[in-house]
Amino acid sequence: MLMLLAGCAPTATLMATNRTPAAVGTVELGLEPNRNTTAELEVEYLAPPYQLRRDMQVYVVWVRRAGSTQWINVGQMLVGEDRRGSIEFRVPFRSSIFR
After folding, report:
1. Could you tell me the residue range of the domain that residue 76 belongs to?
2. Model confidence over 73-96: pLDDT tens digits?
3. Taking the complete model, does pTM exceed 0.70, yes or no?
4. Buried b vs exposed e over 43-73: b needs ≥16 C-beta within 10 Å?
5. In what helix (H) or strand (E) does residue 6 lie, and over which residues does it extend?
6. CA count, 13 A, side-chain hemisphere, 27
7. Nearest in space to 39 (alpha carbons), one of 75, 88, 1
């Protein structure tokens, strides 16, 4: 429920949406020698998924290349009782939009 446009900046702040207004988060980006982008996404104050919709159990992180319309599922982000979640992943491009 958080979105962000990330390019070359090593750390970016995530923007909350109206479905998750209290959520705050950051993503730290790195570039591997093979030009893949690494990402470490951390979120706090995120409501448990079932509070947004009863049939939801986890958050799924989606990424797309800037300028593309195709979203890529990069994994599930579990949210603990402390309302924190994190996930690490790689994508084969530099400029990305996270959702």
Report:
1. 4-98
2. 999 998 899 999 999 999 887 765
3. yes
4. beebbebeeeeeeeeebebebbbeeeeeeee
5. strand 4-6
6. 28
7. 88
